[in-house]
């Protein structure tokens, strides 16, 4: 009986954490019915779990009846986790300088299994475009500039094909430019390795582009990436060469802080 209760408790914990993860994709709230569908659980089970999370202060109901969202208690936990990452203290001065130089949104992410996670972001200082991305957000690898860098520099030669197969339900045509064909993506990744930067060419949202460069560590691995987000209009106005030179410079400075010893080819 004791083992049975323990297993039930573990299952409830895992399900509750899954609900928190799902809610993180819905900053304005998600209806109970939608949560139940996404979690593949019945509504009564989800409602019971939500009541427990609400009692502990991790979620709250929105103004829309039956809809829930995360609270700042989750943000507090996330900030404590991020503050323990020494990489933030190392990278932030360089990212702040990039933000001042270009005036555009600056993003910094970490590779985490089959996702990228946004761990630092600076809003534009002169550019008008403010993106929907937020610190703690999980980014899909196939359609984000930083995500494509992680795919391109993955050491396992079978990883991309395996990723494509296991994430079929997530690989969607978000815009007319989104790459959903494996062969086309492999061509794109080969080019990224050659030119050593990646772009989101309006693949998430029309009119919005992202340019990203890899951050190398002492073992030449790419666990972090830096990018800027801007409008297609601003990109054409400033020119890709100018933007890229500044982003690449920033990525190289952070790479050297992590022990990277070689010059990144330009």
Strand order of the largest sheet: 6-5-4-9-8-7
Helix share of residues?
Answer: 40-55%
Q: What's the helix count?
A: 10
Q: Which residues form runs of ≥5 with pLDDT under 50?
A: none
Q: How large a portion of the residues is in β-strands, by DSSP E?
A: 15-25%
End-to-end C-alpha gap? 64 Å
Name of the top-level CATH class of the largest domain:
Alpha Beta
Query: How big is the Rg?
Result: 20 Å
> What's the CATH architecture name of the largest domain?
2-Layer Sandwich
The total count of strands amounts to 9
CATH superfamily of the largest domain: GAF domain
CATH T-level fold name of the largest domain? Beta-Lactamase
Globally, the shape reads globular
Spell out the helices and strands N to C: HEHHEEHHEEEHHHEEEHH
Number of domains: 2
Top keywords for this entry?
alpha+beta; single chain; 19% strand; Arc Repressor Mutant, subunit A; HTH_MetabolicPath_Reg; 266 residues; 10 helices
């Amino acid at each position: 009986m004791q083992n049975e209760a323990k297993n039930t408790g573990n299952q409830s914990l895992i399900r509750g954490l899954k609900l928190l993860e799902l809610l993180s994709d819905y900053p304005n709230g998600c209806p109970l019915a939608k949560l139940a569908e996404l979690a593949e659980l019945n509504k009564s089970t989800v409602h019971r779990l939500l009541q427990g999370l609400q009692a502990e202060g991790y979620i709250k109901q929105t103004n829309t009846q039956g809809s829930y969202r995360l609270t700042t208690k989750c943000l507090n936990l996330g900030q404590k986790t991020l503050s323990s990452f020494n990489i933030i203290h190392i990278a932030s001065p360089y990212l702040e300088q990039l933000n001042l130089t270009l005036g555009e949104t600056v993003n910094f992410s970490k590779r985490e299994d089959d996702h990228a996670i946004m761990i630092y972001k600076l809003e534009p200082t002169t550019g008008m475009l403010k993106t929907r991305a937020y610190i703690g957000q999980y980014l899909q690898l196939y359609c984000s500039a930083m995500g494509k860098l992680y795919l391109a520099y993955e050491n396992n030669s079978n990883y991309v094909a395996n990723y494509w197969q296991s994430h079929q339900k997530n690989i969607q045509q978000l815009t007319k430019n989104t790459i959903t064909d494996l062969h086309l993506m492999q061509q794109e990744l080969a080019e990224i390795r050659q030119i050593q930067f990646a772009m989101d060419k309006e693949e998430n949202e029309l009119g919005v582009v992202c340019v990203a460069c890899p951050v190398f560590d002492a073992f030449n691995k790419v666990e972090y990436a830096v990018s800027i987000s801007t409008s297609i209009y601003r990109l054409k106005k400033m020119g890709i060469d100018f933007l890229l030179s500044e982003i690449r410079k920033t990525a190289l400075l952070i790479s050297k802080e992590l022990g990277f010893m070689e010059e990144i080819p330009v």
